[in-house]
Amino acid sequence: MTQESVTEKLVAHLMRPVDEPARQRARLHLLDWLGCVAGARQSDVARLSVHDTQADAIRKSAWLGNVLEMDDVHRVATLHPGPVIWPCLLGRRLEPMDNMLDNAVRGYEACIAIGSTFDARHYEYYHNTATAGYFGAVAAAFDYPSANETTSQLVSAMGLAGSVAGGFWQMRHEPGQGKQWHIVHAIETGINAVTYASGSVAGPRFILEGPQGLYAATCKDPKAMTLPDQWRIHDVSFKPWAACRHAHPAIDVALELKARLGSLEGDILIETYADAIAFCDRPEPQSVNDAKFSIQHAVAVIAGSGVPQLADFEPEAIAAFAGSRNRVTVLEASDISSRYPQHFGARITCAGETIELVDTRGDPERPLSTEGIIEKARSLIAWGGLPEKEAERAVDLALDGDDASAIDKMLTDWLS
Predict the structure, then answer these.
(1) Between 1.10.4100.10, 3.40.50.300, 3.30.70.1170, 1.10.275.10, what CATH number should domain 6-240+371-415 receive?
(2) Strand pairing category for 353-357 and 328-332
(3) Interior CA angle at 320 toward 256 and 350, to 5°?
(4) Is the distance from CB of 302 to CB of 263 less than 8 angstroms?
(5) pTM over 0.90
(6) Cβ pair 237, 364 in contact under 8 A
(7) 3-class DSSP state for residue 330?
(8) Distance CA 302, CA 309 (A)
């Protein structure tokens, strides 16, 4: 009897029917992604994407979904599924809307299932959104059959995409658009892998666990894949603040202590987990992107102003909060690191008071309400320079619509 590969087990898992609660959850993530795209439409990345000669609105949207650092996130997989999954689906005429939502749920599932098997060694060097995103893109783009005869094509497509999966974190240390390129490349590769596998091009079945596969090349101790009954889109967090998710625990705990004390005067100590420091210990940000990856800047904004807004990460604010950043010290706490990545937490000490939060706003334990997600989308769409009626259009189409092509048309209106 032929041994079943990890990819084949995942594919069998993806063939299950998608239930209505998962579809409704997908609608919220669609709206959230649309808001992120709209909010980035006047960014430098958007201006650069016009030089892409192949770029229609859907391809442009692939460049924009994570620019503002407000894209959805899965904690254990440490990746952002939405920016990869949704551009794979739009423009494909997956009517009715339920078909597109079902593919989205499966795309999220594949991305998260594989990302959750990567270990700390992988995340030290590889951008999980990219590496696991190749598989998520395949699962989202695949034309699911009513019978299982063609499931081998999905296995092959994942093998083909996985054979070139990658995305190094070096792009974090230099200016540029490498992070956006990772996402665009994962989307295009996943879609192409589905096309070729559907044409009988075979990919490796054991691309994950094989002796020269992805785990062997990029992980020291990969975790076993788990395949729970509930679709994992329910475990994905929404980001309320325009900063790296690793900075959010510090933002939340600083807001909590300021609400208690009325102000944050004097020295501020933030204790958090090791990866938060690795990604977001930037006491002197020089750019908008630096500011979004700076715990010091985010906490300085709260101390000097209040709830962080998109404008608080722009160049004028970076200069304005320089003095306040000098009051913020960031350290690792081993107890908080030991709970990561299941829990993104932080502790703050200021003016003799200490507060600790185990989970972050927007996580399943501290969820954003539907109205909170809608308000986030409205604010992002306004930030992108679109009129209020476009926000209402997005809310209606994403949450209540049954016409995926209408969303394509909306994106064309926004990005043409």
Answers:
(1) 1.10.4100.10
(2) unpaired
(3) 30
(4) no
(5) yes
(6) yes
(7) strand
(8) 10
Q: How far apart are CA 50 and CA 415, in angstroms?
A: 10
Q: Which of 18, 35, 14 is nearest to 26 (CA)?
A: 18
The two three-digit tokens of residue 76, written as one number: 């254990």
CATH 3.30.1330.120 residue ranges for the chain: 245-357
Buried b (16+ CB within 10 A) or exposed e, 184-220: bbbbbbbbbbbebbeeeeebbbbbbbbeebbbeebbe
Contacts of 416 (CB under 8 A, 6+ apart): 57
State which CATH number among 3.30.1330.120, 3.40.50.20, 3.40.50.300, 3.30.70.870 fits the domain covering 245-357.
3.30.1330.120
Residues listed for the chain: 416
DSSP for residue 195: H
Strands 328-332 and 268-272: parallel
Nearest one of 264, 271, 248, 166 to 214, comparing CA atoms: 166
Fill in the amino acid letter for 322: A
pLDDT in tens, the chain (416 residues): 479 999 999 999 999 999 999 999 999 999 999 999 999 999 989 887 655 555 688 889 999 999 999 999 999 999 999 999 999 999 877 678 999 999 999 999 999 999 999 999 999 999 999 999 999 999 999 999 755 557 999 999 999 999 999 999 999 999 999 999 999 999 999 999 999 999 989 999 999 999 999 999 999 999 999 999 999 999 999 999 999 999 999 999 999 999 999 999 999 999 999 999 999 999 999 999 999 999 999 999 999 999 999 999 999 999 999 999 999 999 999 999 999 999 999 999 999 999 999 999 999 999 999 999 999 999 999 999 999 999 999 999 999 999 999 999 999 999 98
